[in-house]
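BUG: 3D viewer hangs when loading the predicted structure for this chain

Environment: internal workstation, default settings.
Expected: structure renders.
Actual: progress bar stalls at 90%.

Input used:
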Amino acid sequence: MSELDDFRSGVLARQIDADKALIRGDAEPRIALWSENEPLSLMSAGGEWRFGYSEICGFFRQLAARFSDGCDFTFDLQVAEIGGDLAYSVGFERYRVAVAGAPLAAVELRATHAYRREEGGWKIVHRHGDAAAR
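Structure tokens produced before the viewer hung:
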């Protein structure tokens, strides 16, 4: 199996599991995927941006607290590549979630992640998400 195949089956599979937890209200699995080493950046689908580990963790915890009943999460990977100690993925996240007590609603986001190799594994160092255009 190639390094890219390992990345897809390992890192991206853990990321999908973490995102499933997030839409059910648990941010900790997603936070565990992030590097603690600066620089770090987040540009959320809601238009917020955060820089640094503590700001990003706080944002994810606030987001998860607003989510409930998340289900049907899928990640449609379009591109993934590794170059030395950096990697990226681009794809579509699709799921249903209740936000702030509202009824379940369908969400489709374009998501780009950048990863850095740290201590033999991969950690997220950047995320950009936005609403997918129809």
